[in-house]
Here is the input.
Amino acid sequence: MLRPINSLMAATAVFIGGLVVGGEFVVHMTELHLAIIVTFIITGAGMAINDYFDREIDFLNKRHRPIPSGRVTPKGAFVFSLTLFAIGVYISFFINIPCFIIALVNSVLLFLYSFRFKKVFMLGHIFVSYLVASSFVFGGFAVNLDNMFPVTILAVLAFLSNVSREIVKSIEDMKGDRFGKVKSFPIIFGEKAARKVSSLLMAISIILAPLPYLLGYMNQNYMYVVSLGLVLFIFSIIWNLRDTPAGRVHKLMKVAMFVSLLAFLVGAL
Here is the structure.
């Protein structure tokens, strides 16, 4: 239920956010460590609560998940997720007030997303993408409250690419989403339109990707690594527009986003 890889990627984004904003990085190392732990816990809680509310849809789309497979009971998943939310928010109080507020707001949004807003047109895509982007901001707030512009750029790039990924993922999940009455982009406007819009968002992300380097917030290593990520995004666009199965496009996009995250990391060191 925790999806440790997703949680680890979110925690890595927090670390990158702390690196990028600069300031007294070493002085605030404890706060950054706590922010990483909080992010890992709350992201895991979000995955667990999503499994709870999606249990009927997952019987159609993903029967290997813990609840449909019978490995975890719905009640157990619900209690487990709320416990993790509470622990994560509690720990965030010891970082600083802005981080506490973000942790609390994001926990509420993760719950509401799974409970209700996932089924509202585009709102689910936007919520998830905001939560991904906010990991960079969370790390920045933990280290330096006075220099948030660099990390905001990273957050915008993460937001755009993740909205695109969410739309492609919703194409893959159309069967279960129809059953669950989820008003996703492809269900409202059709698969063709969804592929075009997601490809456009990927293209915008590709165009904006050099910005952190050009503004001096990333070193040259960033460009070396992010170039590979951009190539993967370009192939994702080509596959997407050629009606390659959405599952394959989604997997390639996840690899591209992982490489891009790695580029942020090496570029900030």
Summary: The domain at 148-269 is CATH 1.20.120 (Four Helix Bundle (Hemerythrin (Met), subunit A)). The mean pLDDT is 88. The first helix runs from residue 4 to 21.
